Amino acid sequence: MIVGSQKPIDEIWSMVKDFKKVLVFGCNTCVAICHAGGEKEAETIASLIRMRAQQEGTKMEVNHLGVMRHCEPEYFEPVMDEIKKYDLVLSTACGVGVNFLSDRTGTIPVYPGINTSFYGAVPEPGVFVELCAGCGNCILHLTGGICPIARCAKTLMNGPCGGTNKGKCEVSNEIDCAWYLIVERMKKLGTLEKLAEIQPPRNWATSRDGGPRRISVEHIREYEEKEEAKAGK
Amino acid sequence: MKSGSNLEKVLASGKPAVTAELGPPMSADPHEVVHKAKQLKGFCDAANITDCQTAVVRISSIAAAAIAFQNGLEPVMQMTCRDRNRIAIQADLLGAAALGLKNCLCLAGDHQKFSAAGRLKGHPGAKNVYDLDTSQLVSMLKKMRDESKQEGGDPIEVPPKFFIGASWTPMGDPIDIRPMNLLKKVNAGADFIQTQGIYDMELFRAQMAKIRDLGLHERTAILAGIIVPKSAMMLKYMDSSVAGVSVPKAMIDRMSKAKAAAGEDKKKMKELQEQEGIKITIELIHQALETPGVKGVHIQAIEWESAIEGIVKAAGLYPRPSF
Ligand code: SF4
Ligand code: SF4
């Protein structure tokens, strides 16, 4: 899932203070699970903004709303008329949701209410950890299922570096060294000797370095086109 | 000869090699580089010119290496993967070779968060690059030199002829992977290796036995890293906080004793500890050179370049061979 965290209320206030009608718009999938931007959090943020507006003597109407997903139009289209009644949407969806909605609201700006951080998992309630960086060319089969792109501070393909200290990364003794974990895991799997092979320089073009990425799944496209043609008949 | 560098020649002659280290200044003043180069010249076969070590902005390794070279000191230019992508690295390598530089040490580089272990502001918010890692960088240098090809495959008319080095942390964590770690660097094309500082000679020798089993000591020249200890405090810090370095308790006690002998006299404390540090260094140099498979020593006197002359002479490594 996509993990994010709420922006400080001071920052939010500085974004919204000049608007008269503000909608705090939550997304009830990923960012709701990490308690950052679901409908419930949107409600809380809305009331925080109202309180602040009162303190500052600013007249402002602030409401909240939530839908299941901000990244597919069918989820927010039913509320589009409602959205258009506001002069600012503060979206608490992930950055994808903010972008996607912003492309569709015409003259109404969409601002981010949260900081979108990473793709992560939930090892225990309330804890979220980054495990994949969406590099576009997965090599987990070579590294015992542990990602050196997302989890090594230097994205090393032939680690570990000299900075590993008692299993921790040189960046902080709070962070596990990914390569330490890779070595220990591959020992257990009996595949340690695989690491002797030098991984060549990566082609980062599959990653964000190649520009924004787009995947088109042909059979779905074809199916949709057929359905549309049928409906057209 | 792959590069014809002085370091390569010394190693080819079979004599133990000595490398030292020169840290460029955090300013545009070339005089400090010239001054340090003069202190080191004649007492080592080549000196590493660090590349923004501990993630602190200093005169670039290439520029400082060129200044050292003009002043008669053979430099080992350092190249980290932290700050440049493969385009910038190759451009810099071509430029460095055009300036006459012949040794290049490949490193991952300290993470930008390091900021001199928190002593300086540094640039912890910088974006790091790591387009390549050390093994990939070594193989790129080899490809440029031996195949006259850029990493992407385009031809190089006049290839950069570098003597290619890499660092190695023999006692790094997890310790049983470290021989394989070296194997990869050697397979990638490392002609010489400088190790992380060694204080625990017994542990190092155990790792070297594994290296000999793999035959790596014959495929690359291993220079044992010796960091000159200045004080008991430094040894304690190295032991507790520096990755891949462990200091035997007896050595720390020995240094503490030297400190205690000064009583309350602060100046004397420093003096006696430095003297003891130099003695320890000389013993470590001898023990390292007696270790089968070790071809030389890399002596780091951090911000204390003036100590090198005395150390090299006292260790019986002076004069340095000339060709
Ligand atoms: S290798 Fe790439 S795709 Fe695979 S887990 Fe790591 S970042 Fe994600
Ligand atoms: S210590 Fe480990 S995780 Fe940190 S940069 Fe080095 S190899 Fe990567």
Explain the overall architecture:
The complex is a heterodimer of chains A (233) and B (323). Helix content of chain A is 33%, strand content 21%. By secondary structure, chain A is an alpha/beta fold. In chain A, the strands form three sheets. A four-stranded parallel β-sheet of chain A has the order 3-2-4-5, with helices on both faces. Chain A is globular, with a radius of gyration of 22 Å. With 323 residues, chain B is an alpha/beta fold. Chain B is globular and about 65 Å long. In chain B, helix 5 (134-147) packs parallel to helix 6 (178-188) and helix 9 packs antiparallel against helix 10 (249-260). Chain A binds chain B through residues 153-167, 170-172, 177, 180, 183-184, 192, 195-196, 198-202, 204, and chain B through 81-82, 86, 108, 110-111, 113-114, 128, 130-136, 139-140, 151, 167-169, 172-174, 176-177, 180-181, 183-184, 187-188, 196, 241, 243-244. The complex binds iron/sulfur cluster (SF4) (2 copies).
